[in-house]
Amino acid sequence: MSRTHVRKNLTKIFIYTLTSILLISPAFNSSYLALAEDVNETIEQIERFLKHKPNSLEGNLRLAAAYANKYSDTKEIRYLDLAIEKGRKAVQIESEFLPANMLLYMLLSQKAIQQRDVTLFSELNEQYQAISQSSLKPKQLKNIPHPSFLAALVYYRISADKTGTPEEVKYENQAINELRKAIRIHPDVSIYHLLLGRIYYYQNKNDLALLEVKEAIRLEPRDPDNYLLLGDIHQDNIHRAENCWDDRAITQGIQAYKEATILAPNHPYAHLGLSNLYIHRGAYNLAIQESKEAVNLYDTHYTRARLGSTLLHVGDYEQGIKELNEALHKEPSSPLARSSLALAYFLQNKFERAIPEYQKYIEQEDSPNPYAILDYHLALKHIGKDEEAEKVLKKYAKIFAEKPWRLHLLNFHLGKLSKSELISKTKHKCHKSEAFFYIAHQYLLVGDKGKAREYFQKTLDMKVFGYSEYIAARYQIKLLNFH
């Protein structure tokens, strides 16, 4: 699962932050949130009451809660602002009244997170200090999100908004600093370690991420989100090994995702994680089963696209294309669905249909996948558009220059490296799989089917089950054997 996609999934942390405050103490009387069925009627009644008694502590608290409920129903920020205004009034009336401090803290937390409002941090700290000096027991106080955690979550959300810009890392680091503060004060709060681990994971600091998620699991072994992050880390570690392939990481990732599905059977991303690792094992049918389960649980353009791309691994192009088109119907700009649809046609040698899909994908992306560019280039070559194919590679040459191996692939396709030179630059079986695959296509282009078959077989012999080159080579051998 991509980091970009997962980083937007803040639901669990967000819900924790907004609800835990209301659940930790009997000192926060639930009657302040008891509202009539018609919230508008409730608001009118309390406002009439406050006209006569503007300094009523209970009246202001009830009106703050009513406006908060109105905001929850409408998502109009003005109602949250009105709730905060009345919460502030209640605190002004009685600065050491715990329910007033708690309600205002909750409302300020909600606005800070929703609006990414860093100007509220000081006031949040003031209310937290008032709460911490109350009669709450240390265990109860620990369950209230610390202001530093709230600040971290705000910075974290800002960093997600800044993905791909220089400011992304700046805000991630600010979030890390705030989380470290929160952990120093409350080291035994699992979710603080979970968020810190997640940020380290986004920063490609998997060793640090692993330490934090293991601590989160120690503190809260029944939390499925901890195992989801653990699975993500192991999945990312598969290709970090020196030989590009870590079977142990695959096994550990499967175990983590399975634990997540046991604890939360309805968690779609745990099933998607399992699906991807089963693909790496070559267990394609199990992968499809998990992808289908994810769609059943959470039918979005992303889960549909994942199912569609997974079906390509077993050669079910008809159903795969159907799922990918459904994903594009839900979200026309889905990069995964568009690139996978192009690949589906490319795998079947339907180059005329693959080309427009590759064009749409590449044009919509600031930094398209270099392998999609290579396949687009090959599709053009296969229909005789050699000049246009070369222009595509030269146009996107900077993307290939980011990594040495990709630059070697670019130079090979531009005729600057021979087949033997490309092979000599491979460092492990993943490189070899790609080199053999593209060499096979070069032989196909000149009509040497015998050599093409030989190198497609070499591609399969590498057993890099998760690569599209593997499934493409398998299909090409089937065609070559048939003919």
Question: Which H/E pattern describes the elements?
Answer: HHHHHHHHHHHHHHHHHHHHHHHHHHHH
The number of helical segments is 28
Domains, number: 4
**CATH topology description of the largest domain:** Serine Threonine Protein Phosphatase 5, Tetratricopeptide repeat
Categorize the overall geometry: elongated
- Poorly predicted runs are 1-31
Sheet of most strands: none
Q: Assembly type of the shown chains? A: single chain
Give the C-level CATH assignment of the largest domain.
Answer: Mainly Alpha
Radius of gyration: 28 Å
Query: What is the strand content?
Result: under 5%
The CATH architecture category of the largest domain equals Alpha Horseshoe
Spatial separation of the terminal alpha carbons = 38 Å
Indicate the mean pLDDT. Answer: 91
- Content-based structural category: mainly alpha
Number of strands: 0
What is the fourth-level CATH superfamily of the largest domain? Tetratricopeptide repeat domain
* Fraction of helical residues: over 70%
Report on the structure:
With 483 residues, this protein is mostly helical. It has 4 domains: 25-135, Tetratricopeptide repeat domain (Serine Threonine Protein Phosphatase 5, Tetratricopeptide repeat); 222-298, Alpha Horseshoe (Serine Threonine Protein Phosphatase 5, Tetratricopeptide repeat), CATH 1.25.40.10; 331-417, Alpha Horseshoe (Serine Threonine Protein Phosphatase 5, Tetratricopeptide repeat), CATH 1.25.40; 420-483. Helices cover 75% and strands 0% of the residues. Helix 6 runs parallel beside helix 9. The longest helix is centred in the middle third of the chain and has 19 residues, at 167-185. The model is unreliable at 1-31 (pLDDT under 50).
